[in-house]
Amino acid sequence: MKKRIKPRFYVMIVLIPILYLGSYGYVRETRKEVWEKDKKTYVIFPEDKILYYVYRPLTIADRRLTGMQFHIGPHQ
Length: 76
Known about the structure:
Blueprint: H1 7-30, E1 32-34, E2 41-45, H2 50-54, H3 56-66, E3 69-72
Parallel strand pairs: 2-3
Antiparallel strand pairs: 1-2
């Protein structure tokens, strides 16, 4: 007998990427800062590197598509 996949599984498959992309968009827009030395806009991640590595795949794509810069912790 074939095992049937529950509709809840399909909802999760759609919902998880939407939440991931949406939360990245929120972090990107709320943590932007222009660095005075080079006048470029950076997304400043907290010094705790976990958030940076969670979003690392998206930051790579974002950098290639938009030229946005990323930094862990405040500029010095």
